[in-house]
Amino acid sequence: MTLETLVAPDGGRVPIAVVGVHGGLVYGPGALAALANADVVVGSPRQLSQTASLCRPEADTVVLAGPLDEVLDRVEDASGAGRAVSVLASGDPGFFGIVRVLAARVGRGLLQVHPAPSAVSLAFARLGLSWDDATVVSAHGRPLADAVRAVRSSAQPSVAILTSPDNPPQLVAEALIAAGEPTGPEAAAAVASRLGEQGEAVTVSDLSDIAEGSFDPMSVLVLTGRAASPGVPSLAWGLAEAAFDRRDGMITKAEVRAVALGKLDLPPFGVLWDVGAGSGSVGIECGRLRPGLDVFAVERDRAQVDRIRSNADRHRVKVTVTEGEAPDALVGLPDPDRVFVGGGGSEVLDAVLGRLRPTGVVVATYAVVDRAVAAAAVLGNVVELSVSRGVATGGLGVRLRAENPVFVCWGPET
What we know:
Layout: E1 16-21, H1 29-36, E2 40-43, H2 45-50, E3 60-63, H3 68-80, E4 85-90, H4 99-106, E5 111-114, H5 119-127, E6 134-138, H6 144-152, E7 158-162, H7 169-178, E8 188-193, E9 201-206, H8 207-211, E10 219-223, H9 254-264, E11 270-275, H10 281-289, E12 293-299, H11 302-314, E13 319-323, E14 338-341, H12 346-355, E15 361-366, H13 369-379, E16 381-385, E17 388-392, E18 398-402, E19 406-411
Parallel strand pairs: 1-4, 1-5, 2-3, 2-4, 6-7, 11-12, 11-14, 12-13, 14-15
Antiparallel strand pairs: 7-10, 8-9, 8-10, 15-19, 16-19, 17-18
């Protein structure tokens, strides 16, 4: 890591002030001075109206609406022409706000940020709670599924979710319940709306009630008392076969599973397919280690499908099970970031690779040499695992009993 010294901008560019507004107020002498000296003020119609008395009458105003790039062009051009620009933003503009976008455009050294209290800090304040151990997630301008995965992967006792018109509190609550987030009095929830403004409301209840309600979409959904959350699992992997209900011999052995999990290089979020899932042991371990993954198991045998669901419940992992035979059963699934293939022919591997997202990884196991060689030619890597397990021989001690060798193939190379 290198240290960077922030220096004053050159080339005639004037620093750009980013001023947080909350309830029509700005905070601190720096924010007041920035507005009083601004040649150009940028903000929503409401923010411009609220702060008009703090700005010079001759200052130009730019409404923050329409394509954001066009507004940023005007901000950059004005700064480059030597004009003082103040950009108004809600709450703390460095907290899921416009600072990130502006810094990427003009460089962080050109910004002077004057924050107001964030909606999240105010929500916890209204509830009388500290939030130094809280996870904060945004569902504003982001896919709801990503926000839900972030919440479910958090082991923190409190979570705050910034909601939006596309993802209002009741819709977020409904999605969280569907994903397995605990409900009831031990896992309280609250919706904080219009904080610091006329019509402020804080509703304390639980997720079930919130999912059935109707709330201001621009709110903060707070979850507390999440002791029932699955939390972060231990780093143990390659669980013993006894940890899963299974048909005799029809399970990826613990040692093979441990190697396969390592080769999968599991990301914190994304989509994982377990194709030819059998008892579901690989996919379930993936979901156990990475709760943010969406795990899809594909299995053609009805009895095994029931086992997958039972094993997933046993390990408190959400697995979506598709009953059917690959590759046809893969058609309706979202494109994967990681795939485990428990055998099958070349047509299955070809179908998987045809759907794999960029930088994705496939791991496939085979008991037959010919199939392993063919898979290695496509994926690029193969290793043969020969494992001997110690078994007791009465009073004579322990002998080694060889398991059938298994080939693990992985790739593609990046």
